[in-house]
Amino acid sequence: MKRLLALVLLIMAVAVPAQAATVGPSTVAQQAQEEPAVVIDDSEGLPEEAAWTFRFLVPTLLALTLALVAGLFFRYQRGFKGRYRIRQ
């Protein structure tokens, strides 16, 4: 295991200086100097359309959750009143 780790470190040590030894400006520097082919103006501020999950899935889940909670509440009330009656 130690030999494998040493071999990987040796390969990395040899590969990094080989990449740094290339002569000339870097790609990032070249791209920074070039102008874009098409300039896009983002100042219009068009509102984004909500994703379909937000438009359809969220309201559906909210409605189902409310119906479930209401159903459980009414079932509990009905069962509770049926079990315990106060007699006078």
Q: Can you describe what's shown?
A:
- This protein has 88 residues and is an all-alpha fold.
- The chain is built from three helices and no strands.
- The model has no long low-confidence stretch (mean pLDDT 76).
What is the string of SSEs from the N terminus onward?
HHH
Distance N to C terminus: 85 Å
Q: Radius of gyration from the CA trace?
A: 34 Å
Number of strands: 0
Q: If you average the pLDDT, what whole number results?
A: 76
Structural class based on helices, strands and sheet pairing: mainly alpha
Work out the strand percent. under 5%
Q: Give the overall shape, derived from the CA principal axes.
A: elongated
Task: Summarize the amount of helix as a percent range.
Answer: 55-70%
Main pleated sheet: none
Uncertain regions spanning at least 5 consecutive residues: none
How many H/I helices? Answer: 3
What is the topology?
Elements: H1 2-20, H2 27-33, H3 52-83
Features:
elongated; 0% strand; single chain; 88 residues; mainly alpha; 3 helices
Concise account of the structure shown:
The chain contains 3 helices and no strands. 66% of the residues lie in helices and 0% in strands.
